[in-house]
Write a structure and sequence with these properties.
The structure holds two protein chains of two kinds. Chain A is built from 17 helices and no strands. Chain A is globular. The chains are: A mainly alpha, B alpha+beta.
């Protein structure tokens, strides 16, 4: 039957056309093909010939671009892949590539100049530490304002907290050798990052899906900046070695010119790379989490055994709590990164079980460390460092514990994976709020010591 | 009949949940059921059903399993979960209220129209008389 063969060929053609839409996964194409064939069969049963039936069925399927857009909205991890291709709303003309590159380079140089100015204007290390992130963040934000055409009222609304943060960081009478100034300097970038996040999502910070995109973006940015730093380091090392052969010392130039421009520049350029080359790293993200999740679990279990075997935990160093925070942050980043890269419709698998083990062992390690710290605090009282570390520890504990429960429910088929995703995005702003609290209140509360 | 896009979007979820409450089903069969129930007056863009089904799946209102059709093709079947049943009950209550309110307001609008119509011929001549 020639007409049957032609129909098969047409359906094949249609399949490959649908598959070109990256938001529609192969399984979805199977599902839609079954639908198409069902419709064709019904139509031929009413008397249409194969060609006519195929045309009507394809037409009934609707505009594939619109369907693909709908799929992309539903599967934001796929939307992420083609964020550049499917802007919000109807496709619009994007700026030519050279113009984007020019904007990015101008912003990177601008950030460098700002940092250079900061180096000249502030003479103490702690003032620099407080102000360098403050100087860099606006340039990164400016890139997204330009790229996403963020409304000016959003920008204006963000300038207010930004200005307040700048004032707090520079007007508070910190004691230069104290710990509150260091705490403020460490926590301010978190607040700044949240502000950058609001720009990144184009002001739609209440929506959950864009928040996840921002978490993805953060993870990819870290990967890119690390790659840039390694590459830049090798390049600089080779140059320095070569120049030292002829008696030229590159170090002064490195300190006063190269680093102030290279570091903020790498962040801005890294952001651009993430935006432009999303699916390159997208393939690395799941691999990285799959490699590091088991390794981190082993590390945590070893730590747990050592901690329990060490006995007298009451006299452990106070750095332990800070270390614990670092470990929990690492575990959380791994979890967040793999949650963001996972297809939320996939069935529970062995890797989800592994993640549960990771979260559970992190919680166990933290429980041991936390009891030790609490007895220590009961003995020696509070200090700004301890309160900050303890507060963060508490937040991480809540975040991870609930993640663990949701993961368990997911593995037992009690809850969809989406519940875990929503919990992540819902909890993220809490960290920004906590960071803000530390920056604003710790100075006055602890006498700026 | 052409339906407003927002109305289709709003009614699609309870409709799909309702159809799945009748029993497990798959994409094309769900669409045929919609056409059948509406006597052909309601026709969706076929492709749009799938993103919706996936959203319901992500929200845990339905579960999907892959099976095979009579013709031996891969086919994804959807079934309502307990959460889906709860959501359906909730949606039903909401839609009952909406439908009830719409009925009332239309009835009273109709009554008002009927009440004012006979008055007009009376009022007009009265004015006309005054001018005459």
């Amino acid at each position: 039957m020639a007409s049957r063969e032609r129909l098969e060929a047409q359906i094949d053609q249609w399949r490959s056309y649908v598959q070109r839409h990256r938001a529609i996964a192969p399984a979805d194409v199977d599902e839609m093909e079954d639908h198409l064939r069902g419709r064709v069969d019904d139509l031929t049963a009413t008397g249409l010939d194969d060609d006519e039936a195929f045309l009507v069925a394809v037409r009934r399927m609707g505009n594939l671009d619109a369907v693909s857009h709908e799929f992309a909205r539903e599967h934001s991890e796929r939307l992420w892949k083609q964020l550049v291709l499917v802007p919000d709303g109807p496709p619009q003309e994007s700026a030519p590539a050279w113009r984007e590159l020019a904007v990015v380079l101008a912003l990177a140089v601008g950030a460098g100049i700002a940092v250079k100015v900061a180096l000249a204007a502030f003479d103490t290390d702690s003032a620099l530490l407080r102000n360098v992130p403050l100087m860099t963040a606006p340039f990164l934000a400016a890139y997204f304002v330009w790229k996403r055409r963020v409304a000016w009222r959003v920008v204006a609304a963000l300038l207010v907290p930004y200005a307040l943060l700048a004032v707090v960081l520079n007007v508070y009478p910190y004691v230069d050798t104290g710990s509150t100034v260091v705490l403020a300097a460490i926590h301010a970038p978190v607040v700044l990052w949240a502000l950058v996040g609001v720009v990144y999502v184009g002001g739609r910070w209440r929506d959950q899906d864009p928040r996840m995109d921002f978490a993805r973006f953060t993870g990819e940015l870290v990967v890119y900046v690390t790659l840039l730093a390694i590459g830049g380091g090798v390049l600089l090392g080779l140059t320095a070695a070569t120049l030292s052969l002829v008696g030229v010392d590159i170090e002064p130039a490195m300190e006063s010119w190269i680093m102030p421009f290279a570091v903020p520049g790498a962040v801005v350029v890294g952001a651009w790379l993430v935006e432009a080359k999303q699916d390159v790293v997208e393939n690395i993200a799941p691999v990285l989490t799959r490699v590091f999740t088991p390794l981190t679990t082993v590390m945590l279990l070893v730590t747990l055994v050592v901690l329990l075997g060490a006995g007298g935990l009451a006299d452990v160093e106070r750095e332990l709590l800070i270390l614990m925070d670092a470990i929990l942050v690492l575990v959380l980043c791994l979890l967040l990164y793999s949650v963001s890269a996972r297809d939320s419709l996939a069935r529970p698998g062995w890797f989800d079980g592994l993640q549960l083990v990771l979260v559970a062992s992190a919680l166990a390690v933290d429980a041991v460390a936390l009891t030790a710290m609490l007895t220590r605090i009961a003995e020696f009282g509070f200090s700004p460092n301890k309160v900050a570390a303890l507060g963060l520890n508490l937040l991480l504990l809540v975040h991870l514990a609930r993640s663990g429960l949701l993961l368990l429910d997911f593995l037992r088929d009690r809850r969809p994976f989406g519940a875990l995703v929503r919990w992540q995005t819902r909890f993220l702003p809490v960290y920004a709020v906590w960071a803000l609290v530390v920056v604003v209140t710790f100075g006055p509360v602890f006498g700026f010591a | 009949m052409r339906f407003d896009k927002d109305l289709v979007a709003a009614s699609a979820t309870p409709l799909v949940l309702g159809i799945l409450a009748e029993g497990e089903s798959y994409g094309y069969a769900i669409l045929k059921r919609v056409t059948e129930l509406s006597g052909g007056r309601m026709q969706w863009t076929d492709g749009m059903l799938y993103p919706l089904l996936h959203r319901l799946e992500r929200l845990g209102l339905v579960v999907a399993t892959w099976g095979t059709s009579e013709a031996g093709r891969r086919r994804k079947h959807y079934a309502l979960t307990a959460a889906g049943r709860d959501a359906l009950v909730e949606r039903q209550e909401q839609w009952t209220v909406v439908a009830d309110v719409l009925h009332q307001v239309w009835r009273s609008a109709q009554q008002a129209a009927q009440a004012t119509q006979p008055l007009q011929p009376m009022a007009r001549p009265a004015v006309a008389e005054g001018w005459a």
